[in-house]
Amino acid sequence: MRAFTYQRVSTPDEAVDAARTHPGAKFVAGGTNLLDLMKLQIETPMHLIDVNRLGLDSIESMPDGGLRIGALVRNTDLAADPRVRRDYGVLARALLAGASGQLRNRATTAGNLLQRTRCPYFYDTNQACNKRQPGSGCSALGGYSRHHAIVGGSDACIAVHPSDMAVALRVLDATVETLRPDGSSRTIPIAQFHRLPGDTPHIETALDAGELITGVTLPAPVGGVHTYRKVRDRASYAFALVSVAAIVKDDGSGRIALGGVAHKPWRDEQAEGSLAQGAAAVTPRLLAAPRPTSDNSFKVKLVERTLASILAERKS
Amino acid sequence: MRLKVNGVERVLDLDPRTSLLDALREHLRLTGSKKGCDQGQCGACTVLIDGRRTASCLTLAVMHEGDDIVTIEGLGTPLNPHPMQAAFVAYDAFQCGYCTPGQICSAVAVLAEIRSGIPSYVTADLNASSDLTPEELRERMSGNICRCGAYSNIIEAISDVAGRRV
Description:
The complex is a heterodimer.
Chain A: E1 5-8, H1 12-21, E2 25-28, H2 34-39, E3 47-50, E4 59-61, E5 67-70, H3 75-80, H4 82-87, H5 89-97, H6 101-106, H7 109-114, H8 120-123, H9 165-171, E6 175-179, E7 185-189, H10 190-193, E8 212-218, E9 225-231, E10 242-248, E11 254-259, H11 279-286, H12 298-315
Parallel strand pairs in A: 1-3, 2-3
Antiparallel strand pairs in A: 4-5, 5-8, 6-7, 6-8, 9-10, 10-11
Helix pairs in contact in A: 5-9, 11-12
Chain B: E1 2-5, E2 8-11, H1 20-27, E3 46-49, E4 52-55, E5 68-70, H2 72-75, H3 83-90, H4 100-115, H5 134-140, H6 151-161
Helix pairs in contact in B: 3-6
């Protein structure tokens, strides 16, 4: 791990001030992904700003019936919150599908959104990776790509976003609240928070340098049957090959978002219009013009079958 | 910095890069917590921070000033073992023993998590409490890998402590 200076801050304003005055700084909260990447020198911050004591660790009920989740609410606490379990089951289920008990106890809401891909070529510093070293190429193209993207990829990158939580937030139309280095705040719809790789796969989110996530808001509950189905190579503590977050209403209409298939949580509100006609109808629209590799072309059918299984279960 | 470990406050002079695991093992000579993968996957380094299980390899010691840290050495001693330690011995829940301190710290926390109503991925009804089934325990213990494959005995030991023989 490269040497860095360490600073503990106690307010969001202090945090963004520290980031502004220390170029190359990073915020650290749970640290479960950042410290791992620092050990491998894939992340090399000069300055680490510990934001654990900012007090952004509560979940508030909003006047419109929604919830405001503090950036530092741990994944375990978010999944266990009675309001989340009752009204946003897809979020509780997605959180519980991710990582292990030890990691969920540390990992935060904001950090989960900011975690980086687990593409093995991103992690292996001997391999070319445009995300780790822009312009160096992509070893995943033509490499072992069973876990990689089937939609939204580019010639520069076919990595997938690893988060389960973010897929549920996408289906729930969450909003990310931030504080910018100049002291102003803004909100970013979750649909625009994560980016497709294009030719700049190292730019993963809409955040500016030194911008701090302060919270995530959920709109009022939408009802329906909430499901998060994660298909993976072992039954627990593994990343998704494919995951489906679904909210399905009595008439068969609803919302779906996918994990494990793209550089960001994948959702297409237009395609959802044909959900009531079944998985075989909606999948070709949801995954229009897929570009799988020879290793992961199975994912197209796997998405359809996972969705079919959710819809069949709802009927039974 | 000050680090409170097993009820005792210790004063340490650490490089900010020092993981909590390295602080415990290399600086405080508490070598019960083990370094397996050093990347949060194996669970051998599991300790309790303010009662919650944590991978001590993936957090910096300096981030835990003021926290209450309990390691396997703080749970019990050879003469006065924690019930979970005694159960692991009684059920032969290990072979080489390398993952065992992490397994035991994790298991103690799992029972506390179930008691406090935290659901898991396999909990059928999110709005009800979880049953202490082997399926629940396996899911909740998946962050602790045992290369010797003592899993079935580990589940029996935890079930015994939980008061439900399986």
